[in-house]
Amino acid sequence: MKLNTIYILENNEPDRMGRKDPKSKSLVAFDMDDTLFHYKKKSEAKVHVLDKTGKRVQSLTNREYNNHKLEPGHKYDFSDFRSTHVFRKSAQPIHKMIRKLKAIHHNNKNVEIVTARSNMDKKNEFKKAMKGHGIDIDKVHFRRAGETGEESPAKAKHKVIDGLIRKHGYTKVHLYDDSEKNLEHFKKLKEKHPNVEFHAHHVHHDAKTGKVTIKTTKV
Prior knowledge:
By secondary structure, the chain is of the alpha/beta class. Helices cover 30% and strands 25% of the residues. It contains eight helices and eleven strands. The strands form three sheets. It has a six-stranded mixed sheet, with helices on both faces. The chain has a three-stranded antiparallel sheet with strand order 4-3-5. Helix 5 (123-132) links the parallel strand 7 (110-115) and strand 8 (141-144).
């Protein structure tokens, strides 16, 4: 299985980015949208729904998209979520979560960002934008689950994390995500990997107060 990062790794290329501790059997994964960043409402990236003629019939927020089902003949337009310009303009860091990511990574742990996004349009500019928020994606993998071809973010992330477990032999995996549906699919990985310990962390960020609460379930 080929897994994409902000750079496309060929199957025979060493996985040298993001594996801070190759000897560790633990992985800590973070969702991106509404987990590490929230967005200004007026300029928030949307997933647009197109009918079979290509006409835009609906626009979904990240949270709405997580639970949306396409009607027959419709398709998604992810152009906003591929736009580095839109990200720069609208992304607001959730400081508590970014501090947590950096602290875990600094503590010699294997940390990855597993996002439902696909390829960004300007990868070098996006890399600079992330570094401006303190996240170096030369060291923390940016896994684009949107490139898996799965029909939903939950299934896409499930597929990516399943592949990482098989590739690296992880025995303990954490996922921080704002979507309960994504976390439910994550916990189903226990059926495929009964000897792996899974920690599902449901992240809720109150944009008005800035308060972050995390509810953890272990399976």
